[in-house]
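Comment thread on ticket #2218

A.B. wrote:
> Attaching the input chain for the structure job we discussed in standup.
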Amino acid sequence: MKTTPTYSGVAMPRAGQSRSFDPVLFAIAALAAFLMFYNLGHRPLWQDEAETAALAVNALEQGVPTVFDGVNIISQEERREFNTDDYVWRWSPWIQIYMSAAGIALGGKNAFANRMLFALCGFFCVLLTYYLIQRHFGDRNWARLSALMLTLSVPFLLFARQGRYYSLGTLLVLCVLFAFLSNWQKRWFPVAIMAVALGLLFHANYLLLLSFAPPLLVAAMIVYWHDLNWKRILIVFLGASCLVIPGILLYRVGRQSGMFNVLLVPENAMLYFADLVMFMIPFPIAIALLWRWRKTLLLKLPTDPAERFTLFCALIILGNLIILAIFPQRFHRYLVHLYPLCAFILAWICTRLWSFERFSAVVLTVLLLFTNWVYLLPMEKLKIINRPWQNDMRMLTSVNFPLKLYLTELTCGYPDVNAQLAKFFNDNAKPWQTILAEYGDLPLQFYTPFRVIGGLQGAIPANESPDWVVRRRIVRVNRDRVLFGARAFSNTLDLAHDYELVKTAIADDEFGNRADPAYHVFLPLEDPMATIEIYRKKDEVNQ
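C.D. wrote:
> Ran it. Output below, let me know if you need it in another format.
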């Protein structure tokens, strides 16, 4: 395909090429829609999703997200998230809460409605991944494969189907990159897009902005130094700041900075690196790219615009990992916005390999699209991975076919622990009763009408007398390595004397529908599996 180079070295397609209908894109879009929306509500909200959804319900009723609805308290940080004078949520940004509220307002109080708009953002991520490459580089094959790589990335699909900010943050990152390649040095519209998208990224999750914006600037200085317009960069910064500063005042960013622990930085860096090579960029490919770009350290940049952009994406990913390692809370969800960048890199490698050795290109592409062999097998040989789930064939942490696992869950269902707990209490508990749950309290709050205490809410008053007690096999401690209030309180109860153990077959699955690829279980747990312990107060048995 012939292209016309622009001032920035980015190859642009000739007029009309980028606007022509692409049947392959239509097929990829249809596949993405199926994978993201089919049975979207078949598994209930898990703890984190239920937090957002419960806040959304309160926001619909009260206008702002509050943690108290007159019955239950929403908290996973031992009540650090709010002031008791107004109960307004101040721990994390609100945009995901209002997106959830909009979905619930449209579709009712259910998992599908709560996740609907977030899945739609995930779908748009696939489209924008395609159009970014097609519009700015004129390489339709690269664009197609990038979109397909993202569509078939099972970890990305898991997060895109969650009722939280993950897909929204990814879409905003793609908007920033699209605008960055859109002649922002001479046009004001891309400048406005970058400023607004970066500002909204803070309101999706401020860690995304803090981890993405600095590497974006540093990578641009390395790769596109001669194209930078510092006056317009300042305007982007000021425009984004207009959206960010009110959020800094509203959310408790300063209070969370007190959780910083320098001793966790090396461990966080190691674990983020493990996540990257296990699920995003295979270790052999990372090494190959490092060797290919070793001269970049001497500022000898690639001359090919496509390869230069690929290097740009790789530097952004590296910068994100470095910054995220500083923060104490290490979760894979803080990497989700980097999946399109990984798709760009992997697709570029496969299309370039096609020019040299077509058979090898086909083999590599198939392995990347349909297996996780290239990700895990080298790590096992190097003995870098050491996780308890490594040999569990029901999870992505073992060598298998991720898409097969994903489709099996979508079509065959899963006996989700939160769904079974909600059904049990809706069938057996009385409307006035109180449930003490050591974990999974927020899904119970969302799906049942009962008063639910415990979870990660903090200390429980000594005069509480719960009618039901739900004990879990995992004993959770807070950041100070102290038992959370729910387990500490249940340890003070005389369960043998005052309560009756109710036998159930509910498997004590730790989380439920958690999207993190290191924890998500696609197939039902097999026997023997510990069941959840549910105790009913004896004076309630005879009523």
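A.B. wrote:
> Thanks. Noting for the ticket: The chain is about 55% helix and 5% strand.
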